[in-house]
């Protein structure tokens, strides 16, 4: 089964549906036999998805920086916690471990991680499905931005398709555990 990396908020957000979706996602990953790779935190949606996945029997690998471990936000009940010296090493390791990516609501860190993986896919450096779980239109502005970049000629339509959208947990897991959409690496055309 696949190892699914989940990028998500270190807060739970104001709407309780975000935590409910994180719980459902963790439970679904475990029930379907998938593993979870994530940022290693015990806080916010990160902690919620990890606890739910662990409760459903999933192997859960957290990848965290030394600085965040010292800040005492590391989840100490994981199957495995990898501690790395920098955010760059952390993100590279998470991508290396993952077969696919699901992006829950979050802020700057969540967005940055997801867009970096989209960029790596676009450049042919990675090939992982990147699926945004668009809860109640949370990621609508992002997809509007991507469409605008296509219209303006900065992103090709096939590379824009690398950013997949799902509206249910089941759809997100199915897409993330499948191959990434075919695209032409940016510097080959």
Give a verbal description of the structure.
The chain is α/β, with parallel strands linked by helices and 189 residues long. 44% of the residues lie in helices and 17% in strands. It has eight helices and seven strands; from the N terminus they run βαβαβαβαβαβααβα. It has helices at residues 16-31, 44-55, 66-70, 87-97, 108-122, 140-151, 157-160, 169-176; strands at residues 3-7, 35-38, 60-65, 80-84, 100-103, 129-133, 163-166. The protein has a seven-stranded parallel beta sheet, sandwiched between helices. β5, α5 and β6 (129-133) form a beta-alpha-beta unit. The longest helix is centred in the first third of the chain and has 16 residues, at 16-31. It starts with a strand and ends in a 13-residue tail after the last helix. 44% of the residues are buried. The mean pLDDT is 95.
Provide a short characterization of the protein structure:
The chain is built from eight helices and seven strands. With 189 residues, the chain is an alpha/beta fold.
């Amino acid at each position: 089964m696949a190892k699914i990396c989940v990028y998500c908020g270190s807060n739970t957000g104001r709407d309780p549906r975000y935590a409910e979706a994180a719980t459902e996602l963790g439970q679904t990953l475990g029930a379907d036999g998938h593993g979870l790779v994530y940022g290693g935190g015990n806080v916010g949606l990160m902690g919620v998805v990890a606890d739910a996945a662990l409760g459903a029997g999933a192997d859960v690998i957290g990848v965290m920086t030394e600085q965040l471990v010292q800040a005492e936000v590391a989840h100490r009940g994981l199957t495995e916690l990898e501690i790395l010296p920098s955010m760059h090493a952390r993100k590279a390791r998470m991508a290396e471990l993952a077969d696919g990516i699901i992006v829950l609501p979050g802020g700057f860190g969540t967005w940055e991680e997801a867009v970096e993986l989209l960029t790596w896919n676009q450049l042919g450096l990675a090939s992982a499905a990147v699926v945004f779980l668009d809860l109640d239109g949370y990621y609508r502005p992002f997809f509007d931005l991507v469409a605008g970049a296509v219209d303006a000629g900065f992103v090709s339509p096939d590379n824009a398709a690398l950013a997949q959208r799902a509206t249910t947990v089941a759809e997100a897991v199915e897409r993330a555990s499948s191959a990434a959409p075919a695209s032409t690496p940016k510097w080959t055309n």
